[in-house]
Amino acid sequence: MFNSKNFLFFIAVFIETIFNANGDLFNEELFIKPLPPAHLYTYFQFTTLVNDNLSSEHTYLAPRSLVEVLTRFQVDELHFTLTEGQWRHNHWGYPVLDAAPGAELYAWFSSDVENVDTQWKKLSSTLAGLFCASLNFIEDFNTITPQMALQPTGAIPQNPNITSQLRYASLPREIVCTENLTPWKKLLPCESSRGLSALLNSRMIHNTNYHSIGVHTRKVCSSSDCSVVSLEIKQTVALVYDSKIIRTTDWSFTKLFGQGLPGGCPLASSSKVYVDITTNDTQPFLLSPEPEKVLLSQRGGSETKLALYTIKPENKMTTIGAKYISKKDLVLMKLPPLYFNRYVLGYGKEFGGIVTELTNTFWSSIDVVVLQNAPWWLPIQLSSLRINGEASSEMVLARHYSPGRSRQKPYHLELLLRLPPKSATKITIDFEFVFLKWQEYPPDANHGFYVGSAIITANLPTARNYTSLPGTASLFESSINASKPWYPAVFRTNGVMVSLPTPDFSMPYNVICLACTVVALAFGPLHNICTKELVLKVVGSSVTLKQKIINLFKKKKE
Amino acid sequence: MGLLSDPEYGSVKWVRILKKVHRPLCFLCYAVALVWFVMLANRDFNNETYFSENALLPGLVTNEFNGEYAAKQYLTEFEQELEEKYYDTEKIPVPWLVAKMSQLHLEVYTHNYTLNYPLGQGQIYKGTNVYGILRAARTPSLEALVVSAPFRPLSSHQKSTAAGIALMLAFAEFARPQKYWAKDIIFLVTEHEQLGMQAWLEAYHGLQSDSETFYTTLGSFWKPGSFGLDLTNFFPGFDWLGSHKKCLNPGQLKARSGAIQAAINLEFHSPKIKYVEVKVEGLNGQLPNLDLVNLVHKLCVKSGIHHSYKNSYSWVRNRNKVDDWVNNIWTMVGMVSTQLAGVPNGNHGLFHRFGIEAVTLEGRDSSDGPAPRVHSLSAANFHRLGLALETVLRSLNNLLEAFHQSYFFYMLPATDRFVSIGQYMPSLCLMCAAMLLRALALWVGVQPTQERSSQAEDPVDSEAKEPGERPPERLSESSNQRVHNRKTIKEKHSDSESEIPGEQDVKEVVQSSDERVANSQTQLNFSMVNVGANYLLVHVLGYAAMNSPVLFTQLGAKYFSLPSEVSVYYGLCVTSAVLVVAAPALPRLLRRGALTHEELTLVNILVLIELSTLCLALGMHNFPLGLAVAALYTPVALLSGVVVRERGWISVWLQRAACAVLQPLGALTAAMCVYSVAVYGGAEGAAAAAGRGRDAAMQAVMFAVADSLIYGNWVFNVAASVLLPVWVVLWQIVCNSVEGPPPARR
């Protein structure tokens, strides 16, 4: 027994050496952060760095199916997320990577690609098959090309019209479930047998308050002058647990994921678990087992304490957990520097408005880009755009608006705003309800029509509540002590739902019935007139009642 | 159309029959309508309620509510808090509610609103609502359910709702750890009864008093900023336009959820209630979807709670069919009387306008209402109430679409029976049909007169020579033309008939020799301009009366320092009195010559059509109101006709008296007085009781006006701008006696 285990380990080390020799690097990380008062954020990140020359025929640690797609469609950078639930920025702070509810896909194509739209359609259809998601519903009428809001994070050769190679689409109605997680797990080198991915038990993770799986690929520089680029594939899972729903504030791997960690992935260069213990000061808890190291990270004026565990492949089953010592229920929440809210105004079926509220709680102004993306059936008019009730505001530094076209193109509005310090800004835009064609209504019972989230891109001046990695970094450890002049972030607001005027679908049936009746009624007399001979009747003396009755019987006899 | 273009119809058989039988026929229609309504209450004529929306899956879940102890705890704490800190104030205990809700880990927010009371000396009322949002897991907050409870201070004359709030908190505590919620749940405690609810709903839907970008017509009939005439320039002392702005400033909400699908309002004063009354009537008589009402009744049964609706009690089952019928009639009458005023009888009623289905559950004891055998009922407790709330909300949680099935227009004769719109509308339609029949009969009665008067020349000539007759030049060209057309058509017809040889020649002579004179002579008795001017003027007066309360308030306060309800009431009384005295003279003032029989008949026809249209339109929105107006005014409208001088004075004065009784304001005051004399007359003496009735009428008018300004209740607006002018026109008709129709007619 001992021997066989040793042997296995030997093989694992051997394989690892081979792969490392080939240059592919795989790292797995788990970041756990309590979000007081009642939530817990866990973020998995599996990063594969393909140092080798990219070829679709052969890959080492990188998933071949994905690499093949990327090379085939000449994708420079790809971001794909499937999310269920809504990240609550004003309560939970910021996630490492934000995602829109439902499915979201955006990609930059290589500058060699001429017909971006065809490639985009092909890419989305292929990914639909790969991830069992309804990405094949991405069409021209829900695709936009953001001008300012999205910037490539990877190393892409400087190109003045880089945005023309970008396509963005979101499907807010998409429901995410196990069928999406299974193909996602298959892309990992260890799949779900070993390593941190073994924790991703779909029974448990679909029970959370918020879950989001994502695939992010980009090109990163592998030489100092960036003449050589390599592919980075990052697979992420973000989960938010609610301590009220799991019925305890104490947490452990077994409680969260249904099982302990069976050791790290043998193919990984490192398997690390970080636990944010900054809140330990206000809400003390004890970690078990004791962390290897406690790292102190100073970043942009805020201090974070991270407990570090390194998981070895040969480790036995480990369970990391926390036990709260005292229970303080009410914790003063620290508001993040920027938070936002989106909602629909009005009632009835004629007009409505969409409001995006942005709150800057910081003492200096923050520049943000707000991207609003309204489907063609929700015509938003630029003339009704108001910022804090004013038609022309000094806050707007730049504006891009592309009107939609019915059944062809969505409405797309981007605003570059400078939010004054300690202020709330309200962006209102009105829309009219439209009637759809009867086949365009969803066939099944529907809650209403979903409008995708707005994208908010900000350069935050402070790292308060900020957990994202620095732009060029691949691993979580690089976010420690990474102070920068500003911290770029891309957020998604909540989506909204409108209920469009729905016709009475039984009406055609009623109309057919009515029309048939009318036709029958009209046809009867016409037929009667056309087929019967008209005979003049002699007008005689007035007929008595008695005679009338007799006549009636006579007719019957005939 | 055939009726209008066919000149022969005067002799058509049905016209002759109609002329003969229209009076009894009209009254028959009226009587049948009333009988129809009464019959609807019978089990054989209404239907049993059923679930139309399958997604509700009522009662399929296993109940888990276990917050009985917590609810008791909350109730004690809440009552203690009120007695200790809020015994001398009417304020809502915001800190306590916020603390309790945040302990449950809800997202808690407060909401402030302001009311600039439109009918006073600039009073400003402020209020605060507290709400907590339970965010459902794995949803991006697209849909929400609301559980609300009004807060009532200790000094309130209404029953406390402390148990409702305690139950709500206990339910929130139970619901927060559940993972099955698909919709957010908003727990809302409102201050100042309906005002707080209205403000919260307006704020939730983003209706701002000063918002210009958003199209809203919440201020009942007025769209903010659309009123073009700025009267402040003419009368700088008065704030004329004050009423046109929205007086309720709903403030801002700090957070919200998605589209609200349904709301349950709780009014429990104690957990030991005997039964639950399900209140449904909303603003302007709007009702929630029948599925929701049915759901609540059915799930009350399942949770072992006795429930009732008006006179229909779940624990009373009449063996006797007649008793059952009578009971159902009283339930329907109760529903009619509640919906009539358009005032919601609970906070649920304000949701309906926003397309949200809502009901109120009110806890009742043996002391409320005449429920039979209520003492023998076992009292409810928090456990059972919580179970009921849980099942209702879990059922609503299953909803896949907004409520759209089942009925929105219905009447409830019992908790488990309903009458759909298709069944009750005929009774209203019959009353309106009676009025339209009468109008038709009058119309066909007018027409042949002209025909013959132009044929038989003598009377026309003699009339034309009368002094004071209007010269033909004053006639409008269009009406001239129309008469001309009619005449030519008619002549063509008489050509083909040629009943009497020689007559045709005479006509042609008339036509060719002096066509214009002949035309104008036909028209002499019949001028649209005079009729129209009077008609329009009366309606403008009605519109002015609708807008007058704010002015009266300011006048009363400035010159007589009266409270606004007194000044509004007496202002309206004076207006009515002036109208009663002056209105009959109006049609005479507007013209030079004497009023003619035809003109008044035309006015009568118009007013009948307007009244029936009004009743039908009201009935489509608020059936009880339409029915009540029709039931009251149809007999008078049928009875009153053009008064001919030679007629006996008894019938004339009878008509006038009947009409006078129905003056809207007078009728209201009289009804209130009669009611109070009947109720309090024995104890206080008739005079004092009548005074009480007058005060009640004063209050009623004031509430109607304020509701119209704050909530958009349109009962006052309709009464002042349509019903009052209709009555004035009727009054004009019965008060003006004219010469009989030309002798040729007889």
From TrEMBL, chain A:
<feature type="signal peptide">
    <location>
        <begin position="1"/>
        <end position="23"/>
    </location>
</feature>
<dbReference type="Pfam" id="PF04113">
    <property type="entry name" value="Gpi16"/>
</dbReference>
<keyword id="KW-0732">Signal</keyword>
<dbReference type="GO" id="GO:0042765">
    <property type="term" value="C:GPI-anchor transamidase complex"/>
</dbReference>
<dbReference type="InterPro" id="IPR007245">
    <property type="entry name" value="PIG-T"/>
</dbReference>
<protein>
    <recommendedName>
        <fullName>GPI transamidase component PIG-T</fullName>
    </recommendedName>
</protein>
<dbReference type="GO" id="GO:0016255">
    <property type="term" value="P:attachment of GPI anchor to protein"/>
</dbReference>
Automatic annotation (TrEMBL), chain B:
<feature type="transmembrane region" description="Helical">
    <location>
        <begin position="424"/>
        <end position="446"/>
    </location>
</feature>
<keyword id="KW-0472">Membrane</keyword>
<feature type="region of interest" description="Disordered">
    <location>
        <begin position="451"/>
        <end position="505"/>
    </location>
</feature>
<feature type="transmembrane region" description="Helical">
    <location>
        <begin position="657"/>
        <end position="678"/>
    </location>
</feature>
<feature type="compositionally biased region" description="Basic and acidic residues">
    <location>
        <begin position="462"/>
        <end position="476"/>
    </location>
</feature>
<feature type="transmembrane region" description="Helical">
    <location>
        <begin position="21"/>
        <end position="41"/>
    </location>
</feature>
<feature type="transmembrane region" description="Helical">
    <location>
        <begin position="625"/>
        <end position="645"/>
    </location>
</feature>
<protein>
    <recommendedName>
        <fullName>Glycosylphosphatidylinositol anchor attachment 1 protein</fullName>
    </recommendedName>
</protein>
<dbReference type="GO" id="GO:0042765">
    <property type="term" value="C:GPI-anchor transamidase complex"/>
</dbReference>
<feature type="transmembrane region" description="Helical">
    <location>
        <begin position="526"/>
        <end position="546"/>
    </location>
</feature>
<dbReference type="GO" id="GO:0016255">
    <property type="term" value="P:attachment of GPI anchor to protein"/>
</dbReference>
<keyword id="KW-1133">Transmembrane helix</keyword>
<keyword id="KW-0812">Transmembrane</keyword>
<dbReference type="InterPro" id="IPR007246">
    <property type="entry name" value="Gaa1"/>
</dbReference>
<dbReference type="Pfam" id="PF04114">
    <property type="entry name" value="Gaa1"/>
</dbReference>
<feature type="transmembrane region" description="Helical">
    <location>
        <begin position="566"/>
        <end position="590"/>
    </location>
</feature>
<feature type="transmembrane region" description="Helical">
    <location>
        <begin position="602"/>
        <end position="619"/>
    </location>
</feature>
<feature type="transmembrane region" description="Helical">
    <location>
        <begin position="714"/>
        <end position="738"/>
    </location>
</feature>
